[in-house]
Amino acid sequence: MKKKFQVFISSTYTDLIEERQRAVTAVLDSNHIPAGMELFKANNQDQMKVIRQWIDESDVFLLILGGRYGSLDPASQKSYTHLEYEYALEKKMPIFTLILTDKMIKDKFNQFDRPMDDFREVINIEKHAAFVEQTKTGSIVRYLDSIYQIDGAVMGSLINFEKDSNIDGWVRSNEPSADNLSLMRQIEELKGTIATLKYEARVLMEENHILNRSSNPEKESILKESNIKFSSMMDVASLTMVSARELAPYTGLSVSFTDMLSVLKIAQVQEEIFSGITNRESPDDVLRYYISQNLIGFLSSNHLVNSIMTTHSNGSVSLVYRVTGQGLKFFIALNQEKDKL
Fold first, then answer.
1. pTM (global) more than 0.85
2. CA 102 – CA 108 distance, rounded (Å)
3. Which CATH superfamily groups domain 6-162?
4. For residues 68 and 132, is the Cβ–Cβ distance under 8 A?
5. Are 257 and 268 in contact (CB under 8 A)?
6. How many CB atoms lie within 10 A of CB 153?
7. Whether pLDDT at 111 is above 90
């Protein structure tokens, strides 16, 4: 699942045009969305409101900090770039900062035929220094000696942010998020449960229909045949030996083998069977794995459980074994036998 971030790029204007454009290109090359470039000339409160809206809609905040502090907001006496940064801090956005070194600032001065104060602060020197110090604790900071380092710095930071599950970003509609994948898995499981319940309801309705159409002697005969059938199943289970080592925590016994009927009477075993056993139980879940390996075959062959194929969101397929209407009656009869003992 590829997330796209909207990256708000903040900087002073005239001294960092080339650096900002380089950062925009790096964001685009990383398949993310740059934002806010046209807002850097902001110098009034109305435009600051627009900028805050852009920041609200962005996922990541990129600050490029050169030698200039920038024009001041009359009310706060802080630069507009500084206000943008502090607003991103207030929003608890992921922030990374690129700071031009003295070497890079001098190289820019030598490259362009412009006065030095176009590249280095001469009025608000202390405010600029305080801003630089603030970024060291409020964001990830990279120092630049050359404009050519911007590509790697931006792309590397965005790759790290992509790994952070706490940053939502933008996801294509055909690429489900982690939360949606979890919901899809739950939906598939519920579909299996619904299908089982529908099947059991149909079986019970058919059996009830047969009983309602029968005379009292016939009803007694049907119920008697059902009890005989369950009794026969119980006899088979009582003669079938299965491993008992894995069941010691539930039986308190230290024997190596026991009969299957005794295992089917264990309350925890019944709870797991009624919750649904799959054909892909992990050996780490000892009891569920034991049931899938030792009991499901018997239960399935006697139509006490039926299997429902479930397709998961990742494309994998598994079978879920659910107790049938006949299985429910079997366990009721089994527990009645247990209570008599």
1. no
2. 10
3. Toll/interleukin-1 receptor homology (TIR) domain (3.40.50.10140)
4. no
5. no
6. 21
7. no
Q: Is 241 exposed, middle or buried (0-12, 13-18, 19+ CB in 10 A)?
A: exposed
How is the chain split into domains, by residue range? 6-162, 178-340
Here the tokens at position 101 are 């070194």
pLDDT (tens digit per residue) in 140-175:
899 999 999 999 999 989 988 888 878 877 766 555
- Report helix angle 267-275 to 286-294, nearest 10: 80
Residue 39 has pLDDT above 50, yes or no: no
Which is higher by pLDDT, 82 or 182? 82
Residue 259 confidence (pLDDT) above 80: yes
Task: Let me know how many helices (H) and strands (E) the chain has, helices first.
Answer: 14, 10
- Six token digits for residue 264: 């089917």
SS (H, E, C) 187-228: HHHHHHHHHHHHHHHHHHHHHHHHHHHCCHHHHHHHHHHHHH
Q: Among candidates 119, 108, 30, which has minimal Cα distance to 69?
A: 119
Find how far residue 146's CA is from the centre of its chain: 39
Q: E strands along the chain, which residues?
A: 6-11, 33-35, 60-65, 95-100, 140-144, 241-243, 257-259, 277-278, 305-311, 317-323
pLDDT higher than 50, residue 222: no
User: Which DSSP category does 79 fall into?
Assistant: B
Comparison of pLDDT for 50 and 195, the residue scoring more: 50
